[in-house]
Amino acid sequence: MPITGTSTDYSNRTKDLHILQGVSPTQKKAINLKFGRFSSYCSGVQKLIQRYTIALLTELGSQVNFNTFGSSLLAELKGLNTTAAQAEVKHIFNFASSKVTTDFRNYQKELEAAVPEDEQLGTAILESVNYENDILYLAIRIYPISGDETAFIIPLPLAS
């Protein structure tokens, strides 16, 4: 995710495949979880956002041989009435995000020297919730250890 006015040397970094296709910091558009027509890599804050999102949206217990990976976010939101109050969505998000944040911190503690600060999660907060056309938009602000926070939106299609 390009960030205006930021330049960082990523030449000696590990990279992830960029699977959050369609990310644009300047406009609202669909994000597809796929490899895309052309392969690309991501590092830095974009890598952190991608890993956080994957952990947040992976259903807890769904990964063979790694049943503690993921969160309860999607399972909790599945049964949610679409007219639910923002406070209820924030409550569900906060529990799920707390679990993911704790997992990240434990992982980072093990590999502290190997993970750059802009790829280490400090915390993430849910800034707002919007429900429109059967899609729940979660506006999240992520705070890496480096201190350069970034806002992003996760669109979640919900059946009405």
Question: Mind explaining what this structure looks like?
Answer:
With 160 residues, the protein is of the alpha+beta class. It has 3 helices and 7 strands, in the order ββββαααβββ. The strands form 3 sheets. A 3-stranded antiparallel beta sheet has the order 5-6-7. A two-stranded antiparallel sheet has the order 1-4. Strands 2-3 form a two-stranded antiparallel sheet. The chain has helices at 44-57, 73-78, 86-110; strands spanning 16-17, 20-21, 32-33, 41-42, 121-132, 135-144, 150-157. It is 28% helix and 24% strand. The chain has one domain (16-157): Nuclear Transport Factor 2, Chain: A (Roll), CATH 3.10.450.40. Strand 5 (121-132) and strand 6 form a beta hairpin.
By CATH reckoning, the class would read Alpha Beta
What spatial order of strands do you see in the largest sheet? 5-6-7
Globular, elongated, flat, extended or rod-shaped: what is the shape?
A: globular
Pattern of helices and strands: EEEEHHHEEE
Instruction: State the CATH topology.
Output: Nuclear Transport Factor 2, Chain: A
Uncertain stretches: 1-7
Q: How many DSSP H or I helices?
A: 3
**Overall number of strands:** 7
Average residue pLDDT? 79
Decide which structural class fits the backbone: alpha+beta
The profile of the biggest β sheet is: 3 strands, antiparallel
The total number of structural domains is 1
| CATH architecture classification name | Roll
Q: Note the gap between the termini.
A: 31 Å
Radius of gyration: 16 Å
